[in-house]
Write a structure and sequence with these properties.
Blueprint (H helix, E strand, L loop, with lengths): L17 E5 L1 H9 L4 H7 L4 E5 L1 H12 L1 H4 L4 H14 E3 L15 H10 L3 E3 L3 H4 L3 E2 L2 E4 L1 H11 L2
């Protein structure tokens, strides 16, 4: 099924800022340097507002403790990442509870998307990607978000 990612008329080049949620798997891939070069530019865009929550910060903290991930980063780099994320994102308190995702551990991201009214949830997780859209949030792979970013000149 082909999704028209620009079907919403609000998604046009202009002064709109876009609220995005970056899933933990994308953050880790980005930090390790796995072919997500455009993400840094997009995150620095004045048209992007990064949305996170305490649940995601906890998940990131746990992932950084895993030996297969931890070997890529010094303790200083991990602290610096959390400081940058804190400075450059909006930490949103989740108030809803959902059970839409096949993997219950990912339901907090769906709740965050709904509660924050995020425009995009960027993920590599197939359980989330199969949902395609929840409320006003489009769920997509980074490569699709990158295409949209180029179209919108984010």
């Amino acid at each position: 099924m082909k999704l028209n990612l620009l079907e919403n008329n609000d998604m046009k080049k202009g002064n709109k800022s876009y609220k995005i949620i970056v899933d933990t798997n994308i953050w880790i891939s980005f930090l390790i340097g796995k072919n997500l070069k455009g993400l840094q530019y997009q995150l620095d865009s004045k048209f992007i507002k990064i949305i996170t929550c305490n649940e995601q910060l906890l998940e990131l903290s746990e992932v950084f403790k895993k030996p297969k991930i931890n070997k890529y980063f010094s303790e200083e780099q991990i602290v610096e990442f959390f400081e940058l994320l804190e400075e450059s994102s909006v930490n949103f308190a989740i108030s809803s509870s959902t059970n839409l995702c096949r993997d219950p551990k990912d339901n907090y991201l769906i709740s965050l998307a709904i509660d924050s009214q995020a425009d995009f949830l960027i993920t590599g997780d197939k359980d989330l990607l199969e949902l395609i859209k929840v409320g006003g949030t489009t769920i997509l792979k980074y490569s699709d978000f990158d295409k949209i970013g180029k179209i919108l000149e984010l």
